[in-house]
Amino acid sequence: MGLSGLFRSVAAGDGGGCLPMPIVAAEAALAVIDASISVAAFVQLARIHRHDQQHGWTRQKIFHFMIGLCNIVFVVYFISTIIATCEKWLCWVHGCGFVLMASPQILLLASFLLLLSFWVDLCHQTNDEDEEDVTSHHEPLLDRTKIKSGFCAVDVRWRCCSGVQLGSRQKIVILVLLLSFAVTIAFAILIWVGRGENPIDSSLLKRVYLDVFSVVVLVLGGALACYGALLFSKMSKVRSETGSSEKRKVASLAAVSLICFSSSAILALVTNVPVLLYWYSTDADIINNAVILFMYYFIGSSIPSGFVLWVMRDIPHRQTVERPTHSRVVTLFRDRPSTTQDPQWRTAVTSSNMALKSSPI
Prior knowledge:
With 361 residues, this protein is mainly α. The protein has 9 helices and 2 strands, in the order ααααββααααα. The chain has helices spanning 3-12, 21-51, 59-87, 90-129, 168-193, 202-235, 243-271, 283-311, 343-355, and strands at residues 142-148, 153-160. Strands 1-2 form a two-stranded antiparallel ribbon.
């Protein structure tokens, strides 16, 4: 069946096995929204890289890339669902569709886990310094110049390392990402085996996976809210021109993460619609499933993705080559050795001033 015949079958609503029109409309709308987010992410990534090429992969670039990538996979999944159902792809129902459904959700989960790891680094750096070697602080995903303030160590300048070096918490994020894909593939294999005559219930496996993933998302939303509130309270103690703006970014991102992730997770736990999309018997069930499907993906992925892009929309300034300046210090009175120019004092003042310019986003 060609694409023209496919869309005629969908529009006609015949019994050829295509999805009902309300569900197709919901998935088509989601595909358009996610495609727009993906295009915006990659266009913004190109602009940021053009203005800041010497620093390589900064936090801002990494988040734009991951958000763009996961939304591209979402678009592929929504379009493939419509086509595969009409074409009756055997692999789609028995494993392939499940893997493609889970992949963008895992990528989105990894993106916000990475954000959480940065926030944890900011709030617990002083505690970690007693437990880790000094060299470990110079091997994060993005090289950091650390300074201490009165409440925690604040990361001031981020630049890409010559090689890909990871901090301990970023390594955990990558490990979680790899384990998530491994678990997804294992579930897909079991679902494929369950299509035959054996005790394995494929629909039960899908529900178990969705429930576990929803609980993880729910915990992630709570963790982002907690650390966002903690970081907000610590930033409130620092006075700077950009402090209020950064506090608003942290507070709003934490609130959006909590609301969106909690809502989508609870919706999935209560309805199981994302994995039981094909279970309907009446027109009311079809419309209900279409609405729940749209709300689940729009609230759980589209809104958080778009909001992250909005928060990180600022283009970095082009850096100019700084020429070394020579300053003169004239001592008018020196009856005793100066204590105010002690190296520790200068370091404390410099750290305090630089901390005002740091951004946790």
